[in-house]
Amino acid sequence: MSQSDKEVQAEAVVESTNTSIHTPAAEEKELNTRSTLVLIGAFCAFFCSVGFFNAWGIFQEYYHAHQLSAKSEFDISWIGSCAICAMYLSSPAAGIAYDKIGPNMLLGIGSVGGLFAIFMVSLCEEYYQIFLAQALVFGVSSAFLVTPSLSTLTKYFRKNRALGMGIVVAGSSTGGVIWPIVLDQLLNHTNLGFGWTIRIIAFIMLPLLALSCLLVRNPAVIHLSANEKDQFPAVAKPKADLSIIKNPAFVLCCAGMAITNLGMFSPFFYVSSYAASLNMSTSFTFYFVSIVNGASFFGRILPGILADRYGCFNLLSSAALASGVVAFCWTGAINVAGVTVWALAYGFASGVSRFSIQGVYR
Predict the structure, then answer these.
(1) Total-model pTM
(2) Model confidence pLDDT, tens digit, residues 182-221
(3) Which of 139, 168, 279, 300 could covalently link to 42 via disulfide, CB atoms 3.0 to 4.6 Å apart?
């Protein structure tokens, strides 16, 4: 066997440790099982991280009426916006760490940090305390949950990858539906108070994050015997190629997606406050956050089927335009029916946008 043939076979062995390839029937079945488990684990990670961000509208309204009544809504909104900013700014560091050590330790760090932040929020009384816990600590911790989950998922899915990503990203919408309902029921219909309500949220997250840490694993590494190692010498990993940052099309695409993200979360933050300004009942305004996220769920699942055929970028362009048009119609909704219809429309359009952004990045 020539040296070039050995190198080709060695590359195939190395590649098989990082991606899903064609295997015999038994191994293929095991791979499908592992793919499903990773999908569940990644879904739980998104549910407890970005899904909790999507419920910020509840905290925006509650803080303004209780703990932070002396602060303006503008000041309070900095907590939610900085949490998302901290997650995105920390994601490159999480990505670099993922390439070096894999998902396991990162998910553990994210889970412990996220739970610590939530428990600390239950004890906070001052603005700076809430900001440090809910914005900085939880935001940074979420990056160590989201980045490893998505990166590992792409190693298992070749066919129907966009659909798999859509299901995982829909975990954030599911969280955005469930967390507001849980918060409303515990805060407004029990005598538990804010502290124990937040602690219960943390206890709900605990088994879900544990499940995520257990299920999200890189594809199994093939262990070679001593004889096989002699036949297939190690192939050096290619060096990082950063030349793409000089590509104007890439830079413009990133800038466009950044602008899309910049304005996308405002309705999620303020839909409850806007409904309250129209003199709607507090219990009902809490559910507008769930309505927006419920529509966003379908906006993430359904496009996943189309993205594999038509491309994530094409969906992103049309969905971002649709989201902007719907957002301009916001102030035209002045009653319960109007706000509900608007929330459904914006939730679906923004869900497609946020799914497509993830798809373009991958």
Answers:
(1) 0.75
(2) 988 888 888 888 999 999 999 999 999 999 999 988 876 5
(3) 168
d(CA 326, CA 246): 34
**Is 222 strand, coil or helix?**
coil
Tokens representing residue 71 in the block: 């602060």
Residue with tokens 């989950």: 149
pLDDT per residue as tens digits for the range 110-144: 999 999 999 999 999 899 999 999 999 999 999 99
SS3 123: coil
Task: Calculate the alpha carbon distances from 130 to 75, 77, 289, 317 in Å.
Answer: 12, 12, 21, 36
CA distances from 187 to 60, 63, 178, 271, 289 (A): 14, 12, 14, 19, 16
CA distance 36 to 27: 14
Residue 216's nearest CA partner among 276, 144, 152, 310 is: 152
Instruction: State both tokens at 230.
Output: 């002699």
CA distance linking residue 274 with residue 188, whole number of Å: 19
For residue 158, the 8-state DSSP code is S
Flag the least confident range among 68-77, 219-228, 300-309, 336-345. 219-228
CA separation for the pair 253, 258 (Å, rounded): 9
Both tokens of 95, joined, read 């990505």
> Which tokens belong to 113?
């940090």
Q: Which residue has the higher pLDDT, 282 or 179?
A: 179
- Measure the CA–CA gap between 306 and 162, rounded to whole angstroms: 8
What proportion of the chain, given as a percentage, has pLDDT over 70?
77
